[in-house]
Amino acid sequence: MKIIPLQPHYQYRLWGGDRLKRFGFRFNDVSIGEAWTASALPQGSSVVSAGPYAGTPLGELYDTHRELFGIDASVFPLLIKWIDPNDDLSIQVHPDDELAHSLEQQPYGKNECWYILEAPEDGEIIYGHTFESKEALQQTLESGDVMTGLIRRPVSRGDFLYVPAGTVHALTKDVSVLEIQQSSDTTYRLYDYGRTEPSTGEMRDLHVNQGTSAAFAPHLDYSEPVLQLDHFRTRLTRNPYFFVEKWKIEREESVSTDTFRLLSVIEGILEIDGSSFGMGATLLLPANQSFHLSGTAVCLVTGVSSPTKQKARIGIDLGGTNTRIAVVSTDGRVEKQYKLKTQPDLELATLLNQIALAVERFGLEYDLTHVGIVAPGPLDLKRGAFLTPPNLPNWHHQAIVEPLRTLLRLPVTLENDANAAALAEAKFGAGRHVDSVFYVTVSTGIGGGFVHKQNLISGAHGSAGEVGNMIIRKDGPTHPTLNVGALETHASGTALQKRAQHKGMTDSMTLLSDETERNTFVDDLATGLANIIHTVDPDVIVLGGGVTASAPLYWNQLQDAVAMRVYPHLRGATPLVLQQLYGDAGVIGAAFLA
């Protein structure tokens, strides 16, 4: 029998009950909150339920039959739980490996993920906080006011979330999950609603000091795109500790393993090598075997990630509100990212330390070769510093490249955000098949960038492509840094929003639905685009930015208006196309600045 079925260990929890039975589990105890279906922890081990190893605890099986697993970790590395809360869980945070070693003398920290099995219509979980520093977080924990700064994220059945160590989090009442994690039960309880243990009447311990040490503060919000591997397998996460795939079995399938897999049936009936398994079953599929699957089932499958590191780059998009730190593959795909509030009222060092923490985490999984950072201008690219970006007032004239290079011990390059987006669209997006690309972003402001043969043209002072200050009229509103009559003061999202408010309209899309206003906007933007064509004669102009969300209202009209403003021999020669990379253009371009 190649398949090794595992019998769960049931865990009492203060917030437990008997509703895990609806997932196929059978027990008689009360207040069961968790079923540990794949565990080698001594405080709750799973046991092989059938076959030649029947009755063997999972940890003992790992120690005595390493050939079944195909890995060389000192102890079994994974833990799978089914969790069903009858009440809100305590607010928690988990340590990473380094902190678990130093504080708890444990081999693993606790990075985990949740697949939402069931949730009420208004279901939500706690994922992150709004406190700007560890000091602020600790103060609110000590005062009991932490709930005021927690982030609640809506969830529904079938959602998936990765919860890196350091993330302040909690499950809430009636949100049932399958949890896959490192083999650790180390949890720092930050807040517990004043609950007491029924057996003693004493309040449960809190771990404020350890939890503050472990927590991201400011919060780092993790995201990772779902990847369709083939017609029935979808990868939900791949991180340094484990990967998780969702298999949807609707016909006969064959799979092979290199290292072991843990398969959990979350819907339907799975037929595997002639045996049937229903919801709640967790199976160990040994290494270097082939299996035949059939039936109608949905399964979550996990295993240990490959130790081989892929080469990748880091792209950082530093905005006035949010900062994104992304891993970008060598072929221009965003692999995963952290996002945090920029908080320009704080010291720049606060942001740089959070960036360093995120890059350090990514360095556990990837061979990082370069870091690019893009920010709003104006910038001093030669010195690697901010000049006077209006939305970063406390950081004017401060260097960013050298401090970041010192922290990361990697090459770091700085560039204007619009130029980076231009480079990304030229290399991997709408301009990848031509030699010269001019990118124009029509958003809060108007910016631009020119790329020739995949080389960014920055100009003598780093200001090439700054078309927002191009004069297109004699009149217009005054601006502290722009010319009267500048393109940005007439055609940007900010300009449209101001006109909409003046006319009593809700937004710029409503404004552009008005024929007169739409004609004015098209005339202004077309004048700017025609000037670009006459100045640099690009193969293509790529338009991006938030205002392009309304493109169906004006796109054909804009094409015609541009054609009427250029030389006859240029009409139709320079197509206008919409961006392809959307919100990822900045971080992708940043990653490829060098």
Topology:
Blueprint: E1 4-7, E2 9-17, E3 32-38, E4 47-48, H1 58-64, E5 78-83, E6 91-93, H2 97-104, E7 112-118, E8 124-129, H3 134-143, E9 150-154, E10 160-163, E11 169-170, E12 176-182, E13 188-191, H4 208-214, E14 221-223, E15 227-228, E16 233-238, E17 243-249, E18 253-256, E19 261-272, E20 275-277, E21 282-285, E22 290-303, E23 310-318, E24 322-329, E25 334-341, H5 348-363, E26 366-375, E27 379-380, E28 385-386, H6 401-408, E29 412-416, H7 417-428, E30 436-442, E31 446-452, E32 455-457, H8 487-491, H9 493-502, H10 508-512, H11 515-536, E33 540-544, H12 551-563, E34 576-578, H13 585-591
Helix pairs in contact: 3-4, 5-6, 7-13, 11-12
Gist of the model:
The chain is α+β, with helices and mostly antiparallel strands.
Descriptive keywords:
594 residues; alpha+beta; Jelly Rolls; Nucleotidyltransferase, domain 5; ten-stranded antiparallel β-sheet; six-stranded antiparallel β-sheet; 13 helices
What does this structure look like?
Helix 5 (348-363) packs parallel to helix 6. The model has no long low-confidence stretch (mean pLDDT 95). This protein is of the alpha+beta class and 594 residues long. Among the domains are: 88-222, Jelly Rolls; 312-419, 2-Layer Sandwich (Nucleotidyltransferase, domain 5); 430-578, ATPase, nucleotide binding domain (Nucleotidyltransferase, domain 5). The chain contains 13 helices and 34 strands. The strands form seven sheets. Strands 1, 4, 15, 16, 17, 18, 19, 20, 21 and 22 form a ten-stranded antiparallel β-sheet that branches. The longest helix is centred in the last third of the chain and has 22 residues, at 515-536. The chain is elongated, with a radius of gyration of 28 Å.
